[in-house]
Structure prediction request, 116 residues.
Amino acid sequence: MLFITIGMIAGMLSGLIGIGGGVIVVPALVLFAGFSQLTAQGTSLALFIIPLSIFAFLEYYRAGHVDITVAAFLAVGFLVGSIAGSHFALSINQEILTKIFAIVLILIACKLLFFK
Prediction:
């Protein structure tokens, strides 16, 4: 039930504000399910294997809020970056990885709160 609840919250926030996997699922799995940082990240990435967000995407697409060309370029970059990032994540100390993750979340939050 815990995992379904985490998935529902992540899905709701993903559809609402475009976040989910990394920002919601990873911390939730670490904090509430006792996963290691690496297992939480790997499990979160498994969500992308099944394109569950297709339904949210279709809502935005129907409303005219999707740039397919940009999405295609982002997908190429995401593919290359995710391979490089996963190799790096698996090669460093897990405590350092967790701190990097936290710092990235803090920087994103500060940018959204204090800057345009």
Summary: The chain has six helices and no strands. The chain has one domain: 2-114. The chain has a mean pLDDT of 88. The first helix runs from residue 2 to 17.
